[in-house]
Structures are given as C-alpha cells and as structure tokens.
Design a protein that fits this description.
Blueprint (H helix, E strand, L loop, with lengths): L1 H19 L2 E2 L3 E2 L13 E6 L2 E2 L11 E6 L15 E6 L2 E6 L3
Antiparallel strand pairs: 1-4, 2-3, 3-5, 6-7
Keywords: Signal
Length: 101
Amino acid sequence: MKLLSFLVSIVIFSVVVNSHNSGWSEWADKPGARCNDTCGACGSIRQVRTCLGGNSKHCQGTRERLARCNFDYCLYPRQTCCAGSEKAIVTRKFQCRPCDD
C-alpha cells in the first residue's frame, strides 16, 4: 500500500511540474537579428519564443514576431519618436515608448 501511495505521489508531482513547464518561453531576439533603425522606437527586430514542455498543444499563437527596438530618442533633424510611440522618462532618461504600454 505504501508503494502504491508513493507511486501516485510521483505521478501527481510529475503532472504538476509538467503543467508549470508548458506554454511559451519569454520572447527573445532571434539569433543574428538586428534592429533596422537606430532610434525613436522606429525600428523592428525579429523575436522568437520556444514551446516549453515538448507538447505544442499547450502553445497557442505564433512562434515569431516583429517587435519595436532602439528606444533612445532621435536627434534633430529626425522626429524625436516615431509614429505610435511617445517620449517618456525611463530610469531618469528620455526614451521613446510605444503608446500602448
């Protein structure tokens, strides 16, 4: 009986651990990818994420996306921040942040 109880505990633990390790990883810049602009949140960079736990049915959505990059504001004669972003103070420094943040 103790052996059965022990085995059931292992199975339950395994299910709980696997459920916490499934889904998507955090977004990360794709290896070798570079931002296509230098400032103002004007550029974009390709990012990827990994399906964790080895079971793709737990991962809804896309594996790749384009994300804004290079948030330092642009100097004259360029516009300070590109469309869809606004100047904000981030860690005591002006940067361009997407308006939807």
